[in-house]
């Protein structure tokens, strides 16, 4: 598992000669850049000034129009990752398949030998001509890409004790009003431990004003529990909880997890590693837009993906997302 690293750059590639470079175009990537399926030279760069002698890793998400795996490299492949415009191509690419819907992550590392600020993606006229959409790129120091945190285009702050999304960003996303419906999805790995001895000793997400007003997701190893998921909402002091079945992981083992919390105006439902907890009625969410949303504030693990929607996603979609 690569170490967690803070991206130096995490944004959309902006300097581009791709005609619809800021459009999603229905290809399933927010703010994606679509490289048309043709034999023309296309590029998309970002501005970042490297330090000569420092190793950097450039990573991106990509979906090919034909649904197949991308082939990065030189002439005859699909594209190159470059620095100094076209002057310095990266090499030693890694291509990771992410699920079964044609999404891949591609990354490569190199030691900078110029301070040229242009890092990006280049498709030569001599490349394959396959079309593709790119998004979610990052530049980090070192030989690994690190975990990517999906942020819908906004920044994630590293607080003293946890990763968090600032309340001003959340308020802006929701136009200043707490939504009636909400779906939260979080994926990563966690290592089971018995400490601290409380029933939320691995807390994956916590959005809380105080004890009387919060949302959170947790996996408990308290007492005889080996890994019991909890989904909780408290409003005006009234607590609503939906828990799921125990998992089978042992203490001390780092294992992958996927959790989703779906809230309507009247019901809550949790999903854990491909299974639903079922639904329970509740009195709605507290207005939490005055406080940050904290990710993995308690426990041992890695955070790989976090998504939030101001709507209720169907159960079938959430079961697929957490399996």
Write a structural description.
The structure is a single chain. With 323 residues, this protein is mainly beta. It has helices spanning 167-173, 315-321, and strands spanning 9-11, 15-16, 33-35, 42-47, 55-64, 80-83, 88-89, 91-98, 103-111, 118-123, 132-141, 157-158, 163-165, 182-191, 202-210, 213-220, 228-235, 238-243, 254-263, 267-272, 275-281, 293-298, 301-309. It starts with 8 loop residues before the first strand and ends with a helix.
Overall body shape: elongated
Number of helices: 2
Straight-line distance between termini: 20 Å
- Helix content range: under 10%
Give a quick account of the main beta sheet: strands, pairing sense, barrel closure. Answer: 7 strands, antiparallel
Strand tally is 23
Structural class: mainly beta
Integer-rounded radius of gyration: 21 Å
How much strand content do the residues show? Answer: over 45%
Contiguous low-pLDDT stretches (5 residues minimum) are 19-28, 149-161
Strand order of the largest sheet: 12-13-22-15-16-17-18
String of helices and strands = EEEEEEEEEEEEEHEEEEEEEEEEH
The overall pLDDT average reads 78
Supply database-style keywords.
323 residues, mainly beta, seven-stranded antiparallel sheet, six-stranded antiparallel sheet, 2 helices
Chart the SSEs and their pairings.
Layout: E1 9-11, E2 15-16, E3 33-35, E4 42-47, E5 55-64, E6 80-83, E7 88-89, E8 91-98, E9 103-111, E10 118-123, E11 132-141, E12 157-158, E13 163-165, H1 167-173, E14 182-191, E15 202-210, E16 213-220, E17 228-235, E18 238-243, E19 254-263, E20 267-272, E21 275-281, E22 293-298, E23 301-309, H2 315-321
Antiparallel strand pairs: 1-11, 2-4, 3-11, 4-10, 5-9, 5-11, 6-7, 6-10, 8-9, 12-13, 13-22, 14-19, 14-23, 15-16, 15-22, 16-17, 17-18, 19-20, 20-21
């Amino acid at each position: 598992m690569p170490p967690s690293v803070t991206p130096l750059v995490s944004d959309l590639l902006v300097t581009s000669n791709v005609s619809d470079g800021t459009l999603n175009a229905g290809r399933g990537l927010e703010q994606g850049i679509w490289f048309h399926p043709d034999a023309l030279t296309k590029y998309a760069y970002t501005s970042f000034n490297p330090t000569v002698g420092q190793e950097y890793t450039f990573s991106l998400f990509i979906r090919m129009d034909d649904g197949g795996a991308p082939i990065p490299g030189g002439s005859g492949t699909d594209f190159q990752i470059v620095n100094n415009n076209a002057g310095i191509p990266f090499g030693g690419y890694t291509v990771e398949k992410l699920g079964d819907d044609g999404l891949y992550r591609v990354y490569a590392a190199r030691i900078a030998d110029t301070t040229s600020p242009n890092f990006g993606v280049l498709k030569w006229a001599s490349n394959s001509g396959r079309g593709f959409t790119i998004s979610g790129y990052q530049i980090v120091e070192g030989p690994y890409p690190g975990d990517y945190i999906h942020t819908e285009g906004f920044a994630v702050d590293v607080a003293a004790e946890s990763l968090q999304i600032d309340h001003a960003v959340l308020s802006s996303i929701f136009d200043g009003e707490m939504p009636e419906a909400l779906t939260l999805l979080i994926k990563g790995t966690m290592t089971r431990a018995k400490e601290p001895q409380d029933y939320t000793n691995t807390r994956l997400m916590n959005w809380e004003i105080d004890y009387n007003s919060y949302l959170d997701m947790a996996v408990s190893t308290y007492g005889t529990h080996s890994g019991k998921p909890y989904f909780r909402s408290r409003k005006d002091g009234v607590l609503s909880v939906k828990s799921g079945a125990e998992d089978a992981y042992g203490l001390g083992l780092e294992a992958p997890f996927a959790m989703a919390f779906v809230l309507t105006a009247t019901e809550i439902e949790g999903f854990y590693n491909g299974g639903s907890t079922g639904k329970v009625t509740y009195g709605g969410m507290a207005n939490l837009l005055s406080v940050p949303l904290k990710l993995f504030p308690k426990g041992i693990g890695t955070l790989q993906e976090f998504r939030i929607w101001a709507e209720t996603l169907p159960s079938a979609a959430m079961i697929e997302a957490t399996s």
